[in-house]
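To make this tangible, this section ends with a sequence with its structure tokens:
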Amino acid sequence: MAEVNTIGVLTSGGDAPGMNACIRSVVRSALTAGKKVKGIRRGYSGLLEEDIIDMDSHSVSDILQRGGTILYTARCPEMIKPEYQDKAAEICRKNGIDGLVVIGGDGSFRGAARLAERGINTIGLPGTIDNDIACTEYTIGFDTAVNTAMECIDKIRDTSTSHERCSIIEVMGRGAGYIAEWCGIANGAEEILIAETYDNDVNAIMERVKSMRAKGKKHYIIVNAESVGHSYEMAKQIQEGTGMDTRATVLGHIQRGGSPTARDRVYATMFGAKAVDLLIQGKSKRVVGYMSGKFVDFDVEQALAMTKSIDPWLLSLNSRMERI
């Protein structure tokens, strides 16, 4: 392929802590290699509107510690249509962008693949707090989101203990239970409810609550994944069925914000540098992942065809630690 001279970078879909660290890495790695860099604001929507800016080393100063994304982000349903894919590719060419780094999730990668088919070299980087991208063991933002939720649950446990209460805490994870799984173990929850394994048997939960109370347990913590939901209704059912004061708390978008952890900053920096390296090597239509301690890359279609599942052994640790 022809040499890449100008690299564009955008963030797409939901924001995640560490995206700024990744943007910084892309910009400075590209500049170090003698390439020009352009930032595309508000993802594919901004690309279609030609909201494109020149970036230099000062553009990414003092952003490593900031949550969110300085390039903003948005969802762009138009990008599934060929006519908008053609338009996006033409706008890239008009602005001299011959290489593009897309930070986002599976939907963002599909858009990148269509641009690659239209002659724009593209590399996808996994940015989502849900950790639900199959081609990688780790996604930018996951560690920060888990730590944010963990701290909130610790605080809720304090008041739950004081009031001898059952608390249901709903964490994010629209299609996957990784945040709930990790928080449940990290917080010592009595129950972890995720869509992958939950059988919707509230009565069984109520029986366990009553059993633990009979053993002298003064409080009961349930971490519930967003994909299961119905936390407020579940709290009402448990209170009515057990007589134990029960409250539900939905943590929501607080998990998306905040200063990224060291792990998210370092991994995001490595992801960004890897993307620039691949573009300089002439690679396109690739997604970078982290597997078995190494940063690897896959063809986008291969990456999208992969599947990922919850580790049942890890989830079983909750039962070993708590249901005694």
Q: What stands out?
A: The CA atoms of residues 105 and 126 lie 6 Å apart.
